[in-house]
Amino acid sequence: MKVLFVCSGNTVSGISPIIDNQASSLTEHTDGLFIDFFPIVGKGFKGYIRSISPLKRRLKEKKYDIIHAHYSLSAFVASLAGAKPLIVSLMGSEVKESFYHKFVVKLFRSLFSWKVTIVKSEDMKKSLNFKKAVVIPNGVSFSRFVPMKKEICQEILMWNPSKKHLLFSSNPQRSEKNFELTQQAVNILSCEDFELHCLVNVPNEQTPLWYNAADVVILTSLWEGSPNAIKEAMACNRPVVSTKVGDVSWLFGDIDGYYLTDFDVKDCAAKIEKAIRFSLEKGATDGRKRIMKLGLDNKQVAEKIVAIYRSIHNTSSCSVC
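RE: above sequence
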């Protein structure tokens, strides 16, 4: 079975590591599955519009059993290029979009008969009011994100072992990640023993080192779908402080070492302090067991997506018998 991923190609590394990792997990765990990419290069409305004709040509030149678009803008391009059968993964950013944007998503979904719409959390499904959407969060590579000795990771990264290290799990320049809340909360703690790091421009293969080197991982986003950073930190058994966005409260459950914060600076500071205390007293959490119990390792998630591919492929094959 041949699948074409239609997605943005505008990150520093080209295709987003999230999408690249999903493709790798699908082919790794499924015999006979081949994935090709159509990266949309060029930002903004014009960049996406210019991609419609090249995608049309690609679809005429090559035969694909499934076209899988990631994010709504890529789905618009795939729809207008005549991609069929089309699966669309809405990745989380659609939650914050305007009423008009959500209306256009619904319109395209109906007019172009998207076969399946995948969302990342029940919260997304409710926010978008897509009753028939399938909830499949992104998975975690349990072979890459593994618990490691904090001291060894800090030594490799040359972090001062006498400090308490806090890791903000994204790029502080992205406004939706709400770095200001983290920074203000850390300032309230006003302890010279703290060092705040940001997970920005870190090669994908090095991120497990950063999680494992941190005493506490922090996410203070304004919105999320199903944040990969949380699942990756949990797979490394690291304590986490996060705002209640996306499916984070479901991911945390009631296990120790995981703290939900309001958007209030004092509350955030208090939760970071609790997480640091947990890290010093107990070290590791049971986050990895929790993620495994929820069925969020890459293999299990890949099986769910491939089951959708096969269902559509079998139906399409029967229709031409």
